[in-house]
Amino acid sequence: MSERARTWIALAVIGASLATIGAVLATDEPSPRDRAHALAARLKCPVCDSETIADSPTDLARDLQDLIAEQVADGWTDQEVIDFFVATYGEQVLLDPPTGGRTALLWIAPLVVAAAGVLVIIGRRAKRSTRELTEEERRAVEAAVRGAER
Predict the structure, then answer these.
(1) Tens digit of each residue's pLDDT (9 = 90 or more) over 45-92
(2) Which residue from 67, 70, 66, 48 is spatially nearest to 57, judged by alpha carbons?
(3) Is the pLDDT of residue 97 over 70?
(4) Is the Cβ–Cβ distance between 42 and 82 less than 8 Å?
(5) The whole model's pTM is what?
(6) What are the beta bridge partners of residue 52?
(7) Residues 53/43, Cβ–Cβ less than 8 Å
(8) Per-residue CA distances from 37 to 42, 86, 98, 108 (Å)
(9) Which of 3, 6, 125, 126 is the most exposed place for a label (fewest CB within 10 A)?
(10) b/e for 83-115, b at 16 or more Cβ within 10 A?
């Protein structure tokens, strides 16, 4: 079997595996416990420094985890739970700042920096590939080729 055929077979197996994983994840409904944990992981502990409610060992965080679990069990949507915590503790309880308004620059700046980096790389590659040899460089290359032929 050729190298190319093995590569295509490997890519097909990887693609089929990723499609299967995606299909399972897309159709799998999270349990209420998983939802509560995911919500707790999106919210910052009000009394801790840079810890989520899910990761914090404080009594308050455990109480808030129980509250989130109760809200999920009562049928609250994820957005309703988030809105409740924002109304109670303010936007600083969110680990991810909301998009738009005052935080738009936080979301746009990384994209602008990445795009600028890509443009710089493309510009340097284009500049490098179109550069002509100087007469002195051309003579050096020709001399090197002649030396290699001997």
Answers:
(1) 989 888 999 999 999 999 999 999 999 999 999 999 999 999 999 988
(2) 48
(3) yes
(4) yes
(5) 0.54
(6) 44
(7) yes
(8) 9, 17, 20, 29
(9) 3
(10) eebeeeeeeebbeeeeeeeeeeeeeeeeeeeee
Alpha-carbon distances, residue 143 vs 7, 9, 133 (angstroms): 42, 47, 14
Handedness of CA 89, 77, 73, 28 (dihedral sign): negative
In a 3-state reduction of DSSP, which class is residue 28?
coil
Rounded to the nearest angstrom, the gap between the alpha carbon of residue 69 and the centroid of all alpha carbons in its chain is: 27
Q: In residues, how long is the chain?
A: 150
Write the CA distances from 88 to 55, 81, 101, 123, 133, integer angstroms. 20, 11, 21, 50, 68
Cα dihedral 50, 54, 41, 53, rounded to 10, equals -50
Q: Please tell me the distance from the alpha carbon of residue 100 to that of residue 51, in angstroms, as a whole number.
A: 24
Q: Which residue has the tokens 């693609």?
A: 15
